[in-house]
Amino acid sequence: MTPLERAEARFGWKLVAPTIGIIGLLIIYPIAFNVYLSFFDVKLNGDKLFVGFENYAKLLTNPNYYASVSTTVIYLFGTVVGTTLLGLGVALLMKEPFSGRAFVSAAILMPYFAPVISVVFGWQFLFDPVNGVFNWLMVDVLHLWDARENLIGEPSTAVWVVIVFDVWKHFPIAYLLILSKLTSIPRDQYEAAAIDGYGPMGRFFHVTLPELFFVLATVVILRLIWNLNRFEDVFLLAPNVQTLPVFTYYQAFTGVIDQGLAAAISVIQFVVLCVLIWFYVKKILRW
């Protein structure tokens, strides 16, 4: 390198040094400290006893951990599939201009931008076993059930309420991504497919879906990454639904506190997230 190039390189490092420092302080250090804690038995007074891989071994024999993993898989599958399909369906309906389209678009986006604490309280009232609208409809109006049910109070049913809530709240982001791609597909492709004899379904599978592949793959992988870390929506609506983030919280801060074990859970979750991010970067973005 010439002296000028070396000077420019040093100047470049000086420019990015504050950003690197902030990233190191707020992201890298907490991750490294969490990995460090996972090898210790952390006492409430702050003392630490090195136990090696014992925390990870305890997880392999903890049935509650496997139940949490199972709940997380159900939650991820339901929310990712539901969000993607609902976003795709609404985007297809909103593709063509119509009177009042701007108003409808604004209404579709409202769940995503609404404060989570307020909508959670609304949904808890909606499924309240005594005064909730849902039980009133099912029992008193439609007569589909014989008695009112506490859907949020039972973990086996609460997970499905949480899934429906997550799909309702977060499908607008999938809708926006898909709609932006739909509106950019050239009409010539649809006209050519129609000339070739394809009807609406044929044009959807042979023109629309291939054009949406990148966007749909992006939505799926990003929803997997985001929902694997999702805590506030699940915990506020139904704290008895123990996905991995909620289970980690209980291990770290409630009952028999075991922060070393909670750190080990977080490390495993972090490794899974790294694999998903690597897949997204290499296979979806093709970097």
UniProtKB/TrEMBL annotation:
Coiled coil: none annotated. The chain crosses the membrane at residues 12-32, 73-94, 106-126, 158-179, 204-226, 261-281. CDD domains: TM_PBP2 (cd06261). GO terms for biological process: transmembrane transport. Residues 69-280 form the ABC transmembrane type-1 domain. It is found in: Cell membrane. Keywords: Cell membrane, Membrane, Transmembrane, Transmembrane helix, Transport. It holds the Pfam family BPD_transp_1. One of its GO terms (cellular component) is plasma membrane. The keyword Membrane applies. It is a multi-pass membrane protein. Belongs to the binding-protein-dependent transport system permease family. This is Sugar ABC transporter permease. It comes from Vibrio gelatinilyticus.
